Structures are given as structure tokens and as C-alpha cells.
UniProtKB/TrEMBL annotation, chain A:
This is Methylamine utilisation protein MauE domain-containing protein. It is found in: Membrane. Keywords: Membrane, Transmembrane, Transmembrane helix. GO terms for biological process: methylamine metabolic process. It comes from Streptosporangium sandarakinum. Residues 4-130 form the Methylamine utilisation protein MauE domain.
Automatic annotation (TrEMBL), chain B:
The keyword Signal applies. The lineage of its organism: Bacteria, Bacillati, Actinomycetota, Actinomycetes, Streptosporangiales. It comes from Streptosporangium sandarakinum. This is Cell wall protein. Residues 1-21 form the signal peptide. Keywords: Signal.
Length: 258, 198
């Protein structure tokens, strides 16, 4: 337990250091500060100074945790900061549910469950760190520290585009979840797109008063029927091929009734 | 139905009885295009020939619809009315709870005689968060919308390829626009058309 407590300041401080440097140095993040829930909390004009202030606080706590000698006050400060994060996330979720949190880099996703779990994990780690005393590191502790860091990074939606999106792309490429359509099958919408591009449809569209009333396939053609006031407009489009000029139209006195 | 189809087919192909205007190929000509009267609605005023809302009840051929502005509409479906629900459909598919847009002619008694009714039609833009078995998980302003591919109906339109039923070129992370039919009271949509920027 002593070893685990001694490990926490390192993991927390590295995470806070990263968050602080992003807030202080990332120009994109400052540019998007107005869209975060922080802007809602302190006002859009004060969003960037507030972001910098949080960054400085994170930097100070990270430095205190990293530099010897260890003291319980450092853990308490980290816990207070984490509790502040949790409170801020709850505020953002309630008051500005469409705003992003502005925690770790610029992105437009609103606060979600993962953000809460991340702040909760940080708080738990900070509480453990209060009892930290000097302790020699061993491989199992390093592995635990790495696991904690991976968990914190995995819970960061800001980083999804670096690992989750490529991973999902790879899975889609391997599994092909959207099956190719059966050959020879032409969805109606494909024919309608051809229709919309055709001179025949353009010349008749001002007369059409309804959407598609009826459609059927015959002799390699797809017939599509629209109402045109008291009259009926019937189009014929080729099922195969994509030449819009091959579409024909007739306007008939056959009433729009069956 | 078959005889009517034969009549319409002969009008198109062979110049049967009752043909007003027809083309062997190409367009009808400008007089047809400019024959329609412009809608007579003042800018900013509600269009009396349009209604939107959700179906409260279906009685015979009339839909009782509650608009989003809490105004009731009575919408009559006649034989010539086109109904859309992920494609052309029939009147028995209109169910209480369905959302709709309707266009037609307002009768003196206030009933809208519908010419076209679109049931549950939605138009959403968003990012593809994930693609799983026949489903696209769309992130629409932080809300997840589950879009189902419907074989034989769903079509993808890419900027550099003709439209097709093949949705497999869509990629996780890209921006898309989905037109489809909402499944009432869920965050799920059946895809009619998905527009892709590439």
C-alpha cells in the first residue's frame, strides 16, 4: 500500500503537467476557449484568462507533487483540484450540455460519462497520494503506474482520434459491417437521383404536386408516377446505366386516382 | 392497378389516349415548366397548404395531427396522395406517433386535402463515430444517433461516384448527412440516403 501511495504523485503530476502545458501553450485550445463550458461559467471575455489560471494551478500542483520532499499537503491540493474538476464537469453537464469541457486540448464533444470517470479516478488517486512517503520503486509498481496512465488517457475523449478512430477504421476494414448490396438490385432512390438530373424531370418538376405515387419495373425500365394537379406525370428511367438524358416523361389526363 | 399502369405506360411509350404532353426523349418544353402558378403566400406568413406535427389518431381517411406549435391539423388522405415512409408507402403504414410533413390544398372546412405526406422524415448531419453490423453510429452535436442500413432501400451518394446501394465506402470519423425515416420515440433512424463528401 505504501508503494502504491508513493507511485500516485508521479502519475498525477505527469497527467497534470500535460494538461497544464496544453492549456498554456496550445493556440488552438485558446482559440476554442469561447466554446467551452468555462466560457459559460466565467463569461466569454474571461474564458482565456480562466483557462490560463487553471493551467497555472495544474502546473503548480504538478511541480509540488514531483519535487521532493513529499508532504500530505500536496495530495490534499491534488484532491482539491480533482474535486474542482468533478464539480466543474457536473456544472458543465447541467448548465451547458452542448459545450465541450476544455480539459485536455481542443475538441467539440460535450462532457460525457468518460470525463466524469476520469476526474473521479484522478480524485481517488489524489486521495491515495495524501499518505505518500518515500518508497523504492519496483517493476510491479511501474506496471501499475503505466496501467493508471493508460486508463487516464483511454478515458480522454480528446485523444480518441489518435487511437480509437484508427482502431475502429481497421475493424471496419477487416469485418466489413456494411454488406455490399445484392447485384442487380437498384434501390428506388438511385433511380430518383438520375431522374432529378434529367432534362425530362427539370421540365416537368414545376407541375408536380405530389411525391412518388407509384413505381414499377418493366422491360429494363423503371416507371415512376407523380401527381401533377388533376393530371398524372409518368417517367421512365433506364434501370441500368446513368445517362439522365435517357429519361422520358409524359403528362397524361389519367387522373391521379387508382 | 395493372390496367392503370398499362395505361400510363402506353401514354409514355406509345402516345395513348389523354396525353397532354410527352417526349420521345428529353424535356417537355418551356411552356410546361412555366405553366405552374407560384405559391400565393406572403413572406413570413404560415403557408396554409402545409402542415407538420405528430399523428395523434387515424380515423378512416383522416389523420389528426398535433403540430409542434400545439395547433391541431386534420389531414385527409385521398387516392392521389403520395405517402413516404423510407420510400413510397401505403396509408395503412401511417401510425399514431409518427411525425409528418404534409402538403396539399386547404379546404374551406379547414381540412388539408393532402397531395404529399412524408412520415418520420429526418435530415441529420454529423460525424460517423463507429460502424457496426448494418449500423452507422452518428455523432450529431454530441448526441448519438443510430442509423440502420435497410437493404434495397438505403443509398449512398458520394461526391465522386454515382449513387449506389453500397455504403461500404463510408469511413469512421468522416462527416455525413443522412436523410431517413426516424423510428418514433427512439434515437434510431432508417437510412434512405446518406451523403458523403468523398
Amino acid at each position: 500500500m505504501q508503494g502504491i501511495a508513493a507511485l500516485q504523485p508521479y502519475v498525477i503530476s505527469l497527467f497534470l503537467l500535460w494538461a497544464a502545458l496544453l492549456k498554456l501553450l496550445d493556440r488552438r485550445m485558446r482559440a476554442q476557449a469561447g466554446q467551452t463550458a468555462l466560457a459559460r461559467l466565467v463569461g466569454p471575455a474571461r474564458a482565456v484568462p480562466a483557462l490560463r489560471l487553471v493551467g497555472v494551478l495544474e502546473l503548480a500542483v504538478a511541480a509540488a507533487l514531483l519535487l521532493p520532499p513529499p508532504s500530505p499537503a500536496e495530495g490534499v491540493a491534488a484532491a482539491a483540484l480533482s474535486a474542482g474538476f468533478l464539480g466543474y464537469l457536473a456544472y458543465a453537464h447541467r448548465v451547458a450540455p452542448t459545450s465541450s469541457c476544455g480539459c485536455l486540448g481542443a475538441h467539440s464533444r460535450p462532457v460525457d460519462r468518460r470525463g466524469f470517470v476520469r476526474a473521479g479516478l484522478l480524485l481517488a488517486m489524489s486521495l491515495v497520494a495524501i499518505g505518500a512517503e518515500p518508497y523504492p520503486m519496483d517493476p510491479s509498481l511501474v506496471a501499475l503506474g503505466l496501467a493508471e496512465a493508460v486508463a487516464l488517457l483511454g478515458l480522454s475523449a480528446e485523444l480518441d482520434r489518435h487511437w480509437l478512430t484508427p482502431l475502429r477504421r481497421l475493424r471496419v476494414r477487416l469485418r466489413r459491417p456494411l454488406a455490399p448490396p445484392s447485384p442487380g438490385e437498384v434501390p428506388l432512390e438511385v433511380t430518383l437521383r438520375l431522374l432529378y438530373l434529367s432534362p425530362a424531370y427539370c421540365s416537368a418538376s414545376a407541375l408536380l404536386t405530389s411525391d412518388v405515387q407509384d413505381t414499377w419495373d418493366e422491360d429494363g425500365l423503371r416507371f415512376v408516377v407523380y401527381g401533377a394537379g388533376q393530371r398524372t406525370a409518368v417517367f421512365a428511367a433506364p434501370l441500368a446505366g446513368g445517362d439522365p438524358s435517357a429519361v422520358r416523361v409524359a403528362l397524361t389526363e389519367v387522373p391521379a386516382l387508382t | 392497378m395493372t390496367s392503370r399502369r398499362q395505361l400510363l405506360k402506353s401514354a409514355l411509350l406509345g402516345g395513348g389516349a389523354g396525353v397532354v404532353a410527352a417526349t420521345a426523349l428529353g424535356s417537355l418544353g418551356p411552356e410546361a415548366a412555366f405553366g405552374a402558378a407560384a405559391p400565393d403566400v406572403a413572406p413570413g406568413a404560415p403557408d396554409p397548404d402545409f402542415a407538420e406535427g405528430r399523428i395523434r389518431s387515424v380515423k378512416e381517411n383522416t389523420l389528426l395531427v398535433l403540430g409542434s406549435n400545439m395547433v391541431f391539423h386534420r389531414i385527409r388522405i385521398v387516392d392521389g396522395t403520395s405517402l413516404w415512409k423510407l420510400g413510397p408507402t401505403t396509408f395503412d403504414q401511417a401510425k399514431p406517433g409518427d411525425g409528418l410533413y404534409a402538403r396539399g390544398v386547404r379546404m374551406p372546412d379547414g381540412v388539408l386535402a393532402a397531395e404529399a405526406v412524408w412520415l418520420n422524415i429526418v435530415n441529420i448531419k454529423g460525424h460517423v463515430r463507429n460502424i457496426t453490423a448494418e449500423r452507422i453510429h452518428l455523432d450529431h452535436k454530441g448526441q448519438q444517433v443510430l442509423c440502420h442500413r435497410v437493404p434495397g432501400k438505403s443509398v449512398a451518394i458520394y461526391s465522386d461516384a454515382p449513387p449506389s446501394g453500397d455504403l461500404s465506402l463510408l469511413r469512421v470519423g468522416q462527416h455525413v448527412q443522412v436523410m431517413g425515416a426516424w423510428r418514433p420515440d427512439t434515437n434510431e433512424v432508417d437510412i434512405a440516403t446518406v451523403f458523403s463528401a468523398h
